[in-house]
Amino acid sequence: MGVGSRRRVVQPLLRGANMRWKPSRAGERRDRLPAEHSQTKRKAKKIERANGNNNNNAWDVVVSLIIRKKSDPSLLDPTTITGHHSPITVPIRVLLPQLDVLAAFHSPMAPNMRPLATSGSLLSQQLSQAGRRSYATSRPALLTSRARWAARPTFHQITLRQSIRRQSTEAGPPPPAPKRRFRVLRWTWRLTYMSALAGLGYMGYGIWEMRNPEDQPEPDPNKKTLVILGTGWGSVSLLKKLDTENYNVIVVSPRNYFLFTPLLPSCTTGTIEHRSIMEPIRNFLRHKKAAVKFYEAEATKIDYEKKVVYINDQSEIKGDISATEVPFDMLVVGVGAENATFGELRALPISIKLTISGIPGVREHGLFLKEVGDAQRIRNRIMDCCETATFKDQDPEEVKRLLHMVVVGGGPTGVEFAGELQDFFNSDLKKWIPEIKDHFHVTLVEALPNVLPMFSKQLIDYTERTFKEETITIRTKTMVKNVTEKYIEAESTGPDGKKQTERLPYGLLVWATGNAVRPVVKDLMEQIPAQKDSRRGLAVNEYLVVKGTENVWAVGDCAVANYAPTAQVAAQEGAFLARMFNNMAKTEAIEAQLAQLSEAQEKAPNQEAREKVFQEIKELHKRLRRVKQIGPFQYSHQGSLAYIGSDKAVADITWYAGNLATGGTITYFFWRSAYLSMCFSTRNRVLVAVDWLKAKVFGRDVSRV
After folding, report:
1. Coiled-coil region(s) at which residues (predicted)?
2. Which pLDDT score, from 0 to 100, does residue 672 have?
3. Does residue 137 share a domain with residue 48?
4. Domain end: 571, 599, 615, which one?
């Protein structure tokens, strides 16, 4: 019970006794529990002598007298208190056993409050004398003696104590409850906390479901066989939305994974590990409704007349059978394209055909950037050049050549690689290999007047300014003519239109420009007369059907559909084919039902039964018309993104009826979030995010594999 509460209990009683309250002065000792009770006068006097005439507190006397004064007024007589004719000779605490009501109120009520009586009354004089004889102690032995002299309060005493407290309290109505503040923030935090828990639970369930695929039904031989060549953007987008229960699906590809190519330049410098952007194709196929067969092989020939695909095992370990054929009813070609090096037509991001003259030496001395193996070779070549340049007694001119990195191609791939390479040097290489910091240089070569021709002029200028700040040299209107082991022969066009040939020494050459038709696609084009005028790939119609065929479709870089050969186009083409194939399966199912109902209508016994069947046929025809209402493929451009180094990026995004062109650090974070959301699976997103964080905290690895 607190001091304030005890004061509210006893204060009205003291007011009736014409008394007032005053807190005890600082430094005064509090009253403690009385010493062990003694009934003899000698014991009482001994206690009094031991403690002296303390005037610390008369609280016990006040409480006892006020409680008993109504029932026994004789207590106000000093002779009654002491039992002698002389005034106050025995400590008042000796009489505590006589004050039975005091047992319920004694000691711990208000030790720091001191009653002071007003002069002029007998009670005041008696209390003053009794106060001078009050007992106080700080000895621990006396604090535990109450249990031996204080009797256990009876039920009547407890009830009386509670009644006095209730009747004597001056407290007014209870204070109003404090107004709760920030309730919105408190509920917002709770919702955030619960949402985070729900998100973690959902992610955990998704991981468990991904790790534990369910059993799949075996293929039905009565269904059509759909063969898909490749595991690129177009093929995987098709498989992702295709209902595999409608077909017997077979996938053929020389690689058993899907590669997220937009982040491939980051793998060349160690910003992202290559397995973080790879998703095993079998992990994906095992979660389809029906089983899908996968053959890790390369399609070497397509026989359109026989409807057969010839495949060959290209792995190092071969079995007894390494070449076979796969029949098909429907075929989707999504094998992509090769790098254009010499004698091919370049597939530029805009609708321009540009013939490149023969460029010897590119395949022998240059590196490409289309596959995981290409990124690993580039990474090793970078470190080889740096370590060789620091070799003992190396010639200064040779050091400059080894540390000159040349990138051919001003598209998104070339620009992003140049930016990543310069970041690698600024953040890590010059710290761990300080000998190369004065000689390392990056040059970007482009045959067109500008880099990033698919972006707006504003972003092109911003990219060129950023490269200039990063000391990256851009050589536009420059065409490579020949590549040797140590030099590049290039022809550049000056502002006055004059052409001049020069030699560029290099240590690393990355060829990131142009697409060429793969041999299997060339062979198929030769079999189809309608493809004789096509030079860059398989010509397709508005439904992506290869011209001159009925059951062959093409998606991605191997198809010529008047769109840029980008991952965005290939993904939309694959999704379109999935919707069309699903509708085709529904159409065939509805037509089969219509045939059965037509036979049932002819065999109907009466007019009522025929009318009932007719209504069913009518409803199926309506449904068939809805299913067949699928229009031609229409590409929806969502925008273009490119990283340009120094934690900056450019974005040309479709915004309502126009385009939003932006560049800078904020765009860089948008570029990261966009690519992170486009990753194929949750596993890829987590791994890529961890790699970014690891590179930022610990830096990139400069070891050579």
Report:
1. 583-630
2. 95
3. yes
4. 571
* Confidence band of 297 (pLDDT split at 50, 70, 90): very high
In angstroms, the Cα distances linking 398 to 385, 386, 404, 422, 439 are 10, 12, 10, 20, 10
| Sequence-distant (≥ 6) Cβ neighbours of residue 476 within 8 angstroms | 410, 446, 447, 448, 449, 450, 451
Q: Do residues 217 and 87 share a domain?
A: no
Q: Mean per-residue pLDDT for 394-416?
A: 95
What whole-number distance in Å separates Cα of residue 691 and Cα of residue 272? 5
Residues in the chain: 705
251 and 298 together in one domain? yes
Contacts of 694 (CB under 8 A, 6+ apart): none
Q: 123-132, 361-370, 420-429, 562-571: which has the minimum mean pLDDT?
A: 123-132
What are φ and ψ of residue 661, in 5° steps? -105, 125
Mean pLDDT of the chain: 79
645 within 8 A of 470, measured Cβ to Cβ: yes
Answer yes or no: is 594 within a domain.
no
The reported pLDDT for the residue numbered 98 is 42
Which range marks the domain in which residue 383 is found?
345-516+638-698
Domains held by the chain: number: 3
User: Residue 477 in contact with residue 304, Cβ under 8 Å?
Assistant: no
User: What share of the chain in percent tops pLDDT 90?
Assistant: 51
Please indicate, yes or no, if residue 617 is contained in any of the structural domains.
no
% pLDDT > 70, the chain: 73
pLDDT exceeds cutoff 80 at 5: no
Question: Does 155 share its domain with 241?
Answer: no
The first and second tokens of residue 443, run together, are 């040059």
DSSP string, 81-128: HHSSSSSS-S-GGGGGGG-GGGGGT-STT-TTEEEEEPSSSHHHHHHH
Give pLDDT, residue 3. 47
Question: Using an 8 Å Cβ cutoff, are 18 and 118 in contact?
Answer: yes
Give the whole-angstrom CA distance, residue 416 versus residue 675.
14
Q: Strand pairing of 330-333 and 225-229? A: parallel
Q: For the chain, what is the largest distance between any 2 Cα atoms, rounded to a whole number of angstroms?
A: 143
106 lies in the same domain as 139: yes
Least confident of 141-150, 218-227, 469-478: 141-150
Q: What single-letter DSSP state applies at residue 485? A: S
CATH number at residue 524: 3.50.50.100
Q: Is the pLDDT of residue 347 over 80?
A: no
Q: What pLDDT band is residue 99 in, cutting at 50, 70 and 90?
A: very low
- Out of 168, 197, 223, a domain closes at 168
Whether 22 maps to a domain, the answer reads yes
281 and 367, same domain (yes or no)? no
- For residues 563 and 446, state if they share a domain: no
Tens-place pLDDT, residues 149-190: 456 777 777 777 777 666 655 555 666 777 666 777 778 888
Dihedral angle of Cα 143, 144, 150, 151, to the nearest 10 degrees: 160
Are 499 and 408 in the same domain?
yes
Q: Which of 638, 669, 705, 673 is nearest to 274 (CA)?
A: 705
Query: Which CB contacts under 8 angstroms, 24+ apart, belong to 522-529?
Result: 523/301, 523/302, 524/302, 524/304, 524/333, 524/552, 527/302, 527/303, 527/304, 527/305, 528/304
Q: For residue 221, what is the DSSP state?
A: T
When comparing pLDDT for 30 and 450, which is higher? 450
